[in-house]
Write a structure and sequence with these properties.
Elements: E1 4-5, H1 8-28, E2 34-40, H2 44-60, E3 63-69, H3 75-87, E4 93-96, H4 106-112, H5 124-131, H6 140-151, E5 160-164, H7 171-180, E6 184-188, H8 195-199, E7 204-207, E8 225-228, E9 232-233, E10 239-240, H9 245-248, E11 254-255, H10 262-281
Length: 286
């Protein structure tokens, strides 16, 4: 058996076409969804991500702007800018690109963004709503993962999902979203004793640990669904995931590649959240 590939790039293209039609309909009602991205410093990876967000927004007709600040920006200056964006009625979504310079506390920045404009889905109020299963902005990568599973009609309810990784950005929230879909969820991390044994019991395995090819076929149950969240750059410059794709695809029923897997879906769900924010702030139904 060779696994069926869940191609995030193709699914992302489909969803962006749907969103483009939705944005055109909103524009007819006088509403142009707008995303403002704040970029601090010269981190090349961050600059690349921000460019990708700008390009994807343009493809769907969403208006976007980038505020670039020097690495020396103080926390007070950044919080002042966020307050101005919170009050600007033309801005529907605010995203501060992480990581931040050491003088700025990430927690303070996340909490400063108004929950109604928190299109990253990291504000404690939105995280709390997600935990309670209420309608809210979902963190983009976990939201993308659930969307990918549903795109293939993969049954989540009653399945055993194992999440390897416990970050606030991916591991913890994706486990909660799977739980909200009635999966039985096990979290594994660097202190987990019997990691391989637990992973090999998973119907749905989510790998988000940030180590290239750490998850080999030995960790995968025959017929499992494998979602690879890792993005690791090898010495030759190529990108690869946390899963050893070649061996894993011979045991899994479905698998995501790297690249063209979870990555493109993250930006797509950010745009989906931006449209949701624009409609919410403008009291437009649908």
């Amino acid at each position: 058996m060779t696994a069926e590939i869940i191609n995030g790039k193709d699914l992302s293209t489909e969803l962006k076409l749907e969103m483009k039609a939705e944005v055109e309909a909103l524009k007819e009602k006088g509403l142009i969804p707008h995303l403002t991205v704040v970029l601090i410093g010269n981190n090349p990876a961050s600059k690349s991500y921000v460019k990708g967000k700008e390009k994807a927004a343009a493809e769907t007709g969403i208006s976007s702007s980038i505020v670039e600040l020097p690495a020396s920006t103080t926390e007070t200056e950044l919080l002042q800018l966020i307050q101005e964006l919170n009050e600007d009625t033309s801005v529907h979504g605010i995203l501060v690109q992480l990581p931040l310079p050491e003088q700025i506390r990430e927690k303070k920045v996340i909490e400063a963004i108004h929950p109604d404009k928190d299109v990253d889905g990291f504000h404690p109020i939105n995280i709390g709503k997600m935990m309670a299963g209420e309608d809210t902005f979902l963190p983009c990568t976990p939201y993308g993962i659930i969307t990918m599973l549903k795109s293939k009609n993969i049954k989540i309810e009653g399945k055993h999902a194992v999440v390897i990784g416990r970050s606030n950005i991916v591991g913890k929230p994706v486990g909660q979203l799977l739980l909200n879909e009635n999966a039985t969820v096990t979290y594994c991390h660097s202190r987990t004793k019997n990691l391989q044994e637990l992973a090999a019991n998973a119907d749905i395995l989510i790998a988000a640990i940030g180590r290239a090819h750490a998850i080999t076929a030995d960790y995968i149950k025959e017929g499992a669904v494998v979602i690879d969240v890792g993005i690791n750059r090898l010495e030759n410059g190529s990108l690869t995931g946390d899963v050893d794709f070649e061996s894993a695809k011979e045991k899994a029923s479905y698998i995501t590649p790297v690249p063209r897997g979870v990555g493109p879906m993250t930006i797509t769900m950010l745009l989906k959240n931006t449209i949701k924010a624009a409609k919410g702030l403008s009291n437009i139904e649908g």
